[in-house]
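Q: My labmate handed me this sequence with no annotations at all. I'd like to see what the chain might look like in three dimensions before we decide whether it's worth expressing. Could you predict it?
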Amino acid sequence: MLSAATALIDSAAPEDVAGVLAAVRNGLIAARRCGLAAAGEARWTSRHRNAEAVEFAMAQQLVRAPTLATQEIVLADPPDVTEHLRGPAADAAVEAITGFSRSAEQALRTAADHTQEWADRRVCRHCTALARELREAWGGQHPSYQLRPAE
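A: Here is what I predict for the chain of 151 residues:
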């Protein structure tokens, strides 16, 4: 599901701001589920905790976009995800999340330049930074995070 959302983001026309925002919304929902599935592996637990705040901040921003105003974003809670990934499968899920966030960052940055609606532009720009922060959280690169992955 996350790979499909990422492919939609990559193929979206930059002037189709509504399409970009909808694809990012769907990708965020899928990324949350992937993260929860990977978080069962001790190596990814603390990175998941770091990413969780970013996911919810991004969802809050996306629902403020006028083009998504009639659509809600429901991010999964831990009990909602019964699949627990281990080893290479967990690594692949995290790689899919970072791929999604890289594509979302680029698409949102470009879409912000194509929208005439100020509120959509603000959401695109804010979510551009949040997509990068999501990638950094999963990559263990964000300098402000105190939680470190288990060694």
